[in-house]
Amino acid sequence: MYNADQWKDYELLDTGDGEKLERWGSYILRRPDPQVIWPNTGQTSRWTTADGHYHRSSTGGGEWEFRTKMPERWTVSYGELKFHIRPTSFKHTGLFPEQAVNWSWMMDKIRGAGRPIRVLNLFAYTGGATLAAAAAGAEVCHVDAAKGMVQWAKENAQLSGLESNPIRYIIDDVFKFVQREQRRGKQYDAIIMDPPSYGRGPNGEMWKLEENLYPFIESCLSVLSPDPLFMLVNSYTSGISPTVLHNMLHMTMGQKFSGSIHSGEIGIPITATGLTLPCGILGRWEAK
């Protein structure tokens, strides 16, 4: 288990009955989580006084109930990185705090490389990994199909004082973008991807993880430099295990480059119980 246990502005206070209670800066949010299939033991009193509570609808989706007057968005920090947090209509906040384990890891890899590093961040969302790589000194290409998420990422970069760093923002279908980069002869020293279970590109292109992930990883090999630093694959799809990611990386990166492969769950410690909430999986190939 890779635990995101270095946060100061975020804390997973408690979990139970299909929900999690979180502190985002000075605000407490209560949100559903499908992994929480154990009862609420009532160890944390803030359950009934949370500033915001997302209620699921029986017909799909849901809505927020706010007990206190809250700003439309606010800022949290992870070390030198800063992010805008905003409760969205789909229960999300614009940040996945468990990914901090990957941010710290890639910053160490980039800073320790001893050479310029070009990073390709695919399905890049609001830019957590983009900011981490840029802060560590890398040149970053940030690709996401959603215009709103790319704009959010730009705002996060500005918050973090990284607006002048070499970050290229692309709104595009990631599969087509990688193919074009291959034809252009572009190369990257590190690739990060956080693909959804299902998705659509800006022109309606369909993505299904179980069908598309392996050929997509294969296609990414064509835009790697001869001396790559790392490849990182994240997944939140329940049917994909850490061993599956390990095997995919072994059959792609491992066949072409010498290095090591690590995979496992990522999680966040629960303050009230001392347990860990699993939040997805990762697979990493890294150079020796």
UniProtKB/TrEMBL annotation:
**What terms describe the molecular function in GO for this protein?**
methyltransferase activity
Entry's Gene Ontology BP terms? methylation
S-adenosylmethionine-dependent methyltransferase domain: from which residue to which, for each copy? 62-201
Q: Which Gene3D superfamilies match?
A: Golgi alpha-mannosidase II, Vaccinia Virus protein VP39
Q: Name one Pfam family in it.
A: Methyltrans_SAM
Alphabetically sorted, this entry's keywords are: Methyltransferase, Transferase
Name of protein? SAM-dependent methyltransferase
According to its UniProt entry, this protein's organism is: Paenibacillus baekrokdamisoli
Q: What is the lineage of its organism?
A: Bacteria, Bacillati, Bacillota, Bacilli, Bacillales
